[in-house]
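Thread: "does anyone have the structure for this chain?"

Original post by V.I.:
We have the sequence but no experimental structure in hand. Need at least a predicted one for the grant figures.
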Amino acid sequence: MKIISVILFLKLFLFSIPMFSQENLKVNDIYLNDGSFIRGEIIEKVENQYIRIKISGGNIVQFSMNEIKKVKQLKRNYHYFSNGNKVKTKGIHFSILGGMIIGTNDFENFYAKSINLSTGYNLNENFSLGAGIGLDSYEPNIFSVFINTRYSPWRKKVTPYISGKIGYGTPVKFWNNQTTDGYTGGLLLSPSVGFQFSSRINSSFLIEIGYNFQRMKRISDWQITEDEIVFRRLRITLGIQF
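Reply from O.Q.:
Generated one for you, tokens below.
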């Protein structure tokens, strides 16, 4: 009898969990005509008359339908803030980052443009893993493929994060017809720090400052020699994630 009682208790306990789980509540943002909004669970709705909403703390408020501009149900894969902003914290995300890379190397002073396209998967609210491609306008232009990671210690309206990518960069054009120089690709490393800015749309904005380390070889055809080239650059980029 004791075993049966324990089993029944466990069944009742397990089946009762979803009833109180936050994931199962239908949380909504209710936007009012005066520009404000209320977030909570709609517990009663009478068409063309009123709705009643349970807000944080268990309090219940009521609004007539003519006070309401729109009702929007929240998505579970976003983190929402009190001002209505949000950032995606679960599932797949895509990002585009573009900007400039500046610095010097053993051969020349250099300024270059940079663009990166990447996709990632949020393993949890703090950590994501992904892969991408990039194009840097060195001389020669370098096409790269890489894997990247990102870690956010917490979630705020403006969230700091650290990221890093490792991959391989290869010249788009292997030979320079004017100088008869050739190039081969090499290792790419790029640690960064950045900020993610939340918004009310399904996208957030990014700013990153990082360090680009790109290894290559330059081959002089007429001298039959190889020179190792290491591009060390400060990278500053802006972008969007969706």
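V.I.: this helps a lot. The longest helix spans residues 2-20.
O.Q.: and The chain has two domains: 2-74, 91-241.
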